[in-house]
Amino acid sequence: xxRRCRIDDCTHEARxxxxxxxxxxxxxxxxxxxxxxxxxxxxxxxxxxxxxxxxPAPGLxxxxxxxxxxxxxxHGLPAQEIARILDVTPRTVYRWRSEGFRQxx
Length: 105
Description:
Helix content is 48%, strand content 0%. The mean pLDDT is 85. The longest helix has 13 residues, at 62-74. The chain is an all-alpha fold. It is built from 5 helices and no strands. It has 2 domains: 1-36, no CATH class; 40-104, no CATH class. α2 (44-53) packs across α3, α3 (62-74) packs antiparallel against α4 and α4 packs across α5 (90-98). It has helices spanning 22-31, 44-53, 62-74, 79-86, 90-98.
């Protein structure tokens, strides 16, 4: 008998001997919330403020960092400066640019 994950709207099977699937187990372990998705959360006002002021801002989600990098790239800032503002490596900024910022879509 297979058991479904006990989290609402989850169609995955629960792990052997568990009541939740592996994906939700990881989210609970990392964030304390089974429905947390840092990728889909972005505060547009924060993103625009950081782009306008070009200042470091800790605590951004991954999506916000990519959106800020895209905006700063459009303003002509070099990858090293964007990396310093976002607290990532310049290589990460180059990778985002080469992928055309597809992840943010």
